Amino acid sequence: MKAVVFHGPYEVSVDEVEKPRIEAPQDVLLRVTTTCICGSDLHMYEGRTAAESGLVFGHENLGIIEEVGEGVTSLKPGQRVVIPFNVACGFCRNCRAGKTAFCETVNPGFAGGAYGYVAMGPYPGGQAEYLRVPYADFNCVPLPPGEEHEADFALLADIFSTGYHATELAGVQPGETVAVFGAGPVGLMAAYSAMLKGAARVFVVDRVKSRLDLVEQMGATPIDYTVDDPIQQIKDALGDVGVDRGIDAVGYQATVPAGQEQPALVLNQLVETVRPTGSIGTVGLYVPTDPGAPDQDSAKGFLLFNIGRFFEKGLRMGTGQTDAKRYAHQLRDMIIAGKAKPSFVVSQELPLMSAPDAYARFDKREPGYSKVLLHPQQ
Ligand code: NAD
Ligand code: ZN
Ligand code: ZN
Question: Which cofactors, by name (predicted)?
Answer without folding.
Answer: Zn(2+)
